[in-house]
Write a structure and sequence with these properties.
2 strands; 366 residues; 17 helices; 1% strand; two-stranded antiparallel ribbon; mainly alpha
């Protein structure tokens, strides 16, 4: 399968389905063991498999794959099929992060379907079991996320990469997982403490999203390819800026996004009390021109659930001008990220692919 994705005129739209096929093969290899333990563990397996395969744009595997190709990895000794299996394992880390994130945020839906913890809460209720069904649902979902994280390691290390390639990729692999967990801690703590400092929001973007979504996947691909220091540094700069722009776009979608597209309720970040760059910028602007509005927004974050109340908060954020400021930041970061690729010895066709991908992810078309 991977050999069909080696063409310089690679159609990016082919990557998600190829990743999904690779994930199906891996998950099928785990089915027998799971059911041999107990069919109730099989329920977790089926839920996890459905979650992993139910949509998703496969952004992280795509960047890792293009990172490998751009560093001329296809001319090296690694089997492309093994490389593709290795980078596809990133999607299992993403599954873990999303399942746990939905518990943390008390989310009801993901990609238009019930979240994993809500699925098992419903199972508990429908079976008439004893105890707290919400606690049961969250407990099983935590385990489902842990299974995904464990299997990501299994899939990566059993991918067929050479020992040398796995050893080179070890550093960005462990740093990526540690950074996203640290970013999650900052995110949770900023909500609990009411921290609206823009620097905190920027740090959350850096570690919870930018490094984990684009920078580290690119560096994993580069490490597998044994890329030059110049390529590694270009990927690092590009990944940081495009990753932050990606998250800023997510900030906008979290407040202004269409539920039919995002798969989550309108204004979800306001309901959850997220201290995003968008919200921090809106608060800063409102404190200057509308102190009462700023006080209302800050007091209401994470405390309102009524759609009309959320709609009023959304309009308050829009009136601050923060949306336009964020748009300018996204455009600047995108230009700077793309410029970081120009001097590095990246294969020209994949430099263009990365340029196209920057536009796609910052506009949310990928």
């Amino acid at each position: 399968m991977a050999h069909s994705l080696l063409s310089p005129d690679l159609d990016l739209s082919a990557l998600p389905s190829a990743v999904a096929e690779t994930l199906v093969e891996f998950l099928d290899s785990r089915r027998e063991l799971v059911y041999s333990i107990d069919p109730r563990f099989g329920d977790v397996f089926e839920s996890l498999q459905g979650f992993v395969l139910n949509g998703g744009k496969r952004v992280r595997p795509s960047f890792a794959w293009i990172g490998w190709l751009g560093a001329d990895g296809a001319a090296g000794p690694e089997d492309p099929e093994a490389v593709f299996r290795a980078v596809s394992s990133l999607e299992l880390i993403q599954a873990c992060a999303l399942i746990h994130d939905d518990i943390i945020d008390s989310s009801d839906t993901r990609r238009g379907s019930p979240t994993v913890h809500r699925q098992f809460e419903t199972l508990h209720r429908d079976n008439g079991w004893i105890g707290n069904r919400s606690h049961y649902g969250e407990s099983i979902a935590i385990i489902a996320g842990d299974v995904a994280l464990s299997w990501a390691d299994d899939m990566f290390h059993a991918s067929g990469l050479s020992d040398a390639a796995r050893n080179r990729a070890r550093d960005p692999w462990w740093r990526m997982r540690t950074e996203v967990l640290g970013g999650q801690v900052l995110d949770i703590t900023s909500e609990a403490s009411g921290d609206t400092d823009l620097r905190t929001a920027e740090k959350i973007n850096r570690f919870k999203t930018a490094a984990y979504t684009i920078e580290r996947p690119l560096l994993i691909g580069a490490a597998i390819a044994h890329a030059s220091p110049e390529i590694v540094e270009a990927y690092r700069a590009y990944g940081r800026d495009i990753g932050i722009a990606f998250q800023l776009r997510d900030d906008q979608l979290g407040v202004f996004g269409d539920p039919a597209i995002t798969g989550k309720p309108a204004g979800d970040d306001l309901r959850e009390g997220k201290r995003t760059v968008l919200v921090s910028t809106a608060l800063s602007r409102l404190q200057e021109k509308d102190p009462a509005g700023a006080a209302h927004l800050e007091a209401s974050l994470g405390t309102v659930a009524d759609p009309d109340d959320i709609a009023r908060l959304t309009e308050l954020v829009r009136s601050s001008g923060a949306e336009e400021e964020l748009e300018g930041m996204i455009q600047q970061l995108t230009r700077r990220g793309v410029d970081a690729l120009k001097e590095a010895p990246i294969l020209s066709e994949y430099r263009q692919t990365l340029t196209d991908m920057a536009d796609l992810v910052t506009q949310r078309a990928l």
